[in-house]
Structure formats: structure tokens, C-alpha cells
Structures
1.
Amino acid sequence: MLSYWEKQSLLQYDMIIVGSGIVGLSTAASIKEKSPEIRVLVLERAVLPTGASTKNAGFACIGSLTEILDDLKCNAEDQVLDLVQLRYEGLNKLRVRLSDEKIRYATNGSYELIQEADKDCLKELDRMNDLLFPILKARAFTPADEKLREFGFSSEHAAHLIRNNFEGELHTGEMMRALIDHCLRLGIEIKTGCEAIIIEENRGQVQVVVQHHYLKEEISFTANKVAVCTNAFTKQFYPEMDLKPGRGQVLITEPIVDLPFKGIFHFDKGFYYFRAVENRVLFGGGRNIDIQGETTTDFRFNEKIREDLVNKLREIILPGISFKVSDWWAGIMAFGETKVPVLEKRSDRIFMGVRMGGMGVAIGSAIGEKLANMMLKV
Ligand SMILES: Cc1cc2nc3c(=O)[nH]c(=O)nc-3n(C[C@H](O)[C@H](O)[C@H](O)COP(=O)(O)OP(=O)(O)OC[C@H]3O[C@@H](n4cnc5c(N)ncnc54)[C@H](O)[C@@H]3O)c2cc1C
């Protein structure tokens, strides 16, 4: 049973954001940066953010050559370019807001490994550079085969290397730490252990109902406006929407003496990605070998994919180098029929920013900014 005082003073906000991943926190930050007088609450269901934002690989990407070529096969050119623009804008916003030093942003090189059988994509380099030039004002892709010997990848899988000059890497943990600190400095309240179970409009306000675990009763926060930033978990509120969860598994090795490469790398159209983290290798992906099994919000591991990742690490990335895996984890992404994220006004008071795919580090801050602008419009 809540007290009179609690009901009077602790449940009312101007705006509530549901979900404390990069999108939820960026939305809250953008609102507060523009209108410091607004009282903003972020509700997170778990002790820590528990989706993708604290689980990802920390690639700051605008898109690899084969990924963009692939996107162009099934999407209009304008749509593909809009996504590159969004990633570019989002990364700039993230870096300016939090600083490169705090998020440990670095540009140690970003490369795509190309097998001999796929080398036709190299013929598209100039066309793709011309296409992206109006956004980036410089050439994005350059051949980098001269690095192959130094990096030591299996030549069967890496016959060619393409460098992307607009990508970088960051420390995911430090990025989220800095974003949380930034929100706290702005005066945003973040409550964890608060799973929203109902979000509904009622008498000119929005009620967000959460379970009070200790009192074992439901309590209702109210706000003028609410943003739903629950990414892969949004179907709990909107079961009809076009959204599929996608689990991603990642490993990190113990430190490796004389690791021969630095930077971030992709192969198989971005389905696999790896990077050096200090002198360890972080390696993830492989959803494509069991798409159905990975269409889940379950954080448990898929043994088939774990085996595949270890084999590829041994055969492609570190041939002849001994390594030990020190950690595994999984995170959940959200996908739809298209790669375009969902940024929507569901009603005059309920807004939504979800379905970030594998791009949320890049686009999260831009989506947060757009969502905040929508919410602040009278
Ligand atoms: C393994 C992996 C690697 C990735 N690598 C990269 C990368 O290198 N670069 C890149 O750009 N992107 C990458 N991504 C994608 C990126 O991490 C996501 O797109 C991004 O984090 C999505 O952010 P979000 O805030 O929308 O969602 P999330 O981070 O999933 O946040 C949603 C939050 O909502 C909370 N929530 C859910 N339901 C409720 C509820 N009912 N009440 C309250 N809270 C709730 C969840 O606990 C969660 O904290 C990767 C993702 C994974 C899984």
C-alpha cells in the first residue's frame, strides 16, 4: 500500500521513457538538454540495461561495402542513403555529447574481408564511393590488400581487404557508463527493477504500470508523454507490429601475445564481426547459420553457433595462433522487414523509437534526438 505522500509526490513526471538502452537514455538526454525544466523519468525492467546496448561489439559503423551493396538490392537508393546518413549523424552526436576520451573512441582501421569468390564487389568500389560522397565528402572505401600479410588471416577467407575510412570503435561499457552519468548530471531519474507491464492513456495522461516487487502490488507512474524504447521487447505492448528479435552471441579471448592486428573487421556481409580489444579478440555473429533458432528474446546460448564461432576464430582469424576464450555473452537485437528503424508517434502522448537492428550504437543518439523533438512538439 503506497502512502499519501508517495502518491502525491513520487509518481508524477512530465515525460517517462521506458527502457534504458542507448535509445532510451539518448532520448531522455535530448529532452533534458533542450528543456531542463522538464521532469524526466527512465524506467528499466532489470538491474542493468538488459537488451543490446551493454552487450554489443562497440563497432561505430556506417556500413561495409558488401552490406551497402546488399541493401541496394532490396531497398530504394534513397532509403539506403538515409540510413548511412543516420548512422553518420548518430555517431557524430554520440561523440560530441560524451567525448571520444570517455567512450574510448578510436580509429584503428575498419576492414571487410573478401573471399576470392566474392571479389566482383571490388568493381563496385568507385560507384559506392561516388554514391556516399555527398554524405561523407570523402571516399569511404579503399582497397587494403597490402595489410593482409601483416594481419595473418586465412588467405582462403581473406583474399582481399577493403578499408572503410569512416568507421571506428568504442568501449561499449564506458560508452554506457558515460551516457548514464550524463543523464544523471542532467537531473534525469533512472529507476531500475521497474518493468512496465501496462502503458495506457487515461484522462489526458499516460499511465505506466509497474510491479512493486517488495509490496507485491502494481503501482502507476503518470506522465504527459511517454516514449517506448524497449527495442526487441516491444511486442509485449504492440503485438501486431513488424518486429522480430534476433539474438547475437559474442566471445572474447584471453590476452594474446603479439596479436597481429588492430581495428574492427567484418565478413560474410556483416554476419560475422571481430575486433581487437586491447590485446584480446572479441568475435561475434553467426546468426545466419540458424536464423530461426536466433529469432528469440532468450539470452541463453546456441551451442551450434558457439562451435561455429570458435572454429572460425581458429581457422580464419587466428590460424596458427593459440588462444583461450575467457568470456561469452548474448544480447538481443530487433529486426523488421526493412532495416529502417521505427520512429513513431502512436498517439498525441505515446511515442516509440525501436527496431535498431545491428546499428544501434551508430544510430541510437540520432534516433533519441528525433524522438525527443517529436515529444517536445506541442
Ligand atoms: C551481440 C551484439 C552486437 C552488436 N554490435 C553492434 C555494433 O558493434 N555496433 C552497433 O551499432 N550496434 C551493434 N549492436 C546493436 C545495438 O547494440 C542495438 O541496436 C542497440 O543497443 C539497441 O538499443 P536500444 O536502446 O534500442 O535497445 P536495448 O539496448 O535493447 O534497450 C532496451 C531496454 O529496454 C528494457 N526493457 C524491455 N522491456 C521493458 C519493460 N517492459 N519495462 C522496462 N524496461 C524494459 C530492456 O531491459 C533494455 O535495457 C549489437 C547488438 C548485439 C546484441
2.
Amino acid sequence: MKNQPLREIFDKVRHVVTEPEWALARPLIEEIRQLKAERDALILAHNYQHPLIFFGVADLSGDSLGLARQASQVDAQTIVMCGVHFMAETAKLLNPDRQVLIPDDQAGCSLADAITAEDVEALRERYPGVPVVTYVNTSAAVKAASDICCTSSNAIEIVEALASDQVLLIPDRHLADYVSNHSEVEILTWEGGCVVHEEFRASEIDALRVDHPDICVIAHPECHAEVQASADMVGSTSQLIDWVGNHRPDKVAMITECTMSDNVASHFPKTEFIQPCSLCPYMRRITLEKIRDCLRDGSGEVEIDEAIADQARLSVTRMLEVS
Ligand code: SF4
């Protein structure tokens, strides 16, 4: 994806970007490329980023786990995280000697906001000895209070690797439902949820199937349990993309943040993507203008309190060692 010719980029985004929008974006993309080279920077983009960012300026892209892995292997002075704040913190944890920038430090996450380190300590007192598995969609302080992290790609594997009859899997109650339905381990959880995935309803999927009898419906595990039960397949964003690549359905609905369908559709032009749409307001805070500004000014630098950094890093690296 690194510095493709601009015409090729427009070919990838023209299904969602008009000629006038492209004319406005093009000089910004060129400016960002120039600044990136001057600063020896690498741009990481989550799958939910706008196609102009995803195809236009990102060097590497992926889901939370993919970005965490790539963040641990980068060869650049500066990392720009086009995603939300916990992702930038994870990149900083894995690259303590590099500068990590986030183009908008208000790009948060409803799951990360759902739990604090104090809440984790209270859970440990209530369930002594039960290991704490924390979704990466949390603050560094919460990671530091936990035993190990997981993502939606590897949550089952991480829970089962702990060889414990009971596990606290926090903070997403729907991911906890998903793991509970696929594992013998008893899952205790928290009342957190993603504002984007909680929007979807099983009745919407029923209606889709009436309107499109041949449609395949694939859903993210942050959706309600009844949405998961209505889907043909449930998986993380990278697992959803792989499923489309392996099955090449004629028609598919990806029940997740709807920008991802715009990005995936570029790779599978023969598949029709039907989008019941829910947008992440936090991901949308990242724009080409803000990426340009943070590269130009070195603004939005992510710092992690030294008192928690080592422990938080340990929770992430333990995960990477298991999966
Ligand atoms: S989509 Fe949901 S989990 Fe992902 S960043 Fe947005 S609010 Fe957080």
C-alpha cells in the first residue's frame, strides 16, 4: 500500500469518492506523503478508516491485533496511528523509544470509557484468583491492572490458554457472550459495549434476508448475542475480510462499522456489499487535514505514565506470545 501512484488510489476509492472530493483530497495526500518522508514516519490505519486515508496515505492497515503486531515491528522514527486512542497507546507501549502521534487525541472509544483500573481492582476483590483478560479496546491503565489482553480475533484462544475454569473477560459483554458460546470456560464480564455494534438489531438482519434472499450476513462479536445468532458467521474485522476473500459471495452484509465495507469492496468488485450502516464517531475524527497537521507540527504525541507502562506492556506482550 506504500505510495501507490495517485491514479491507482483514485481507482480504489471512486466507488465512494466523487471527482470533486478527489480533487480536494489529492493535494493533501501529496503533502502527507512528503511530510511522512521528511519525518521518517509510518502511518498505520485501522480497517474502519475512511478509504481516502486507508488507500491514500496508510503504509500498513489492519484490525487491532494486526496493528498491534505491526506496531511492534516498525522501522520508523515516528508512528502515526489513524485509529482511536487506545490503539495509539498500544503502539507506544510496543515502541517506547519511538514517537507515536494520533491526529486527534479526542478519538476515544465507548468500550475504553466503560471501565477504569479501579473497577478492575474491585473485580479482583470480588473474584479472587480469577484471571483478568482485557480486550485491547481499553486504556493503558486498565491493561496494567489486567493479566493479559485479547482482541476479537484471539479472545477464545487467550481465554483457553489460561487453563482456568473461570475467567473475567472485560469490558465488552457481547464479546464475552461470544467466547462463552464457544468455550467450556465460565466467563464473567462487565457491562461495557461498543456504541457502533450495539446499534444493530436481529430484526434488521431478518429484513435484509427478506429483501435479499441470497445474502450472506457476517457479524462482529461486539454485536448483541441475538445479532450474532442471526449471522452466518461471526468474526473480528480481519476474519470477516478473510471470509469474504475465501467465499467470494455474490452479496454480503458485514455487520460492523460500515466504512470497512467501503474499503473491502475495492478488493472484491464482483461482490455486492449491502450496508446497514453504523459509523464510529471516534474513528471519524481522524481526517486527512489532521494527519497533515500532526505530521507537520509533531502534535498529538502519545505519552504513557511510567508507573503503569511496564505492566500494561506486559499484558499486551503476553497476548502476542500466545497468539
Ligand atoms: S467501533 Fe466501537 S469499539 Fe471500535 S473504536 Fe468505535 S466505539 Fe470503540
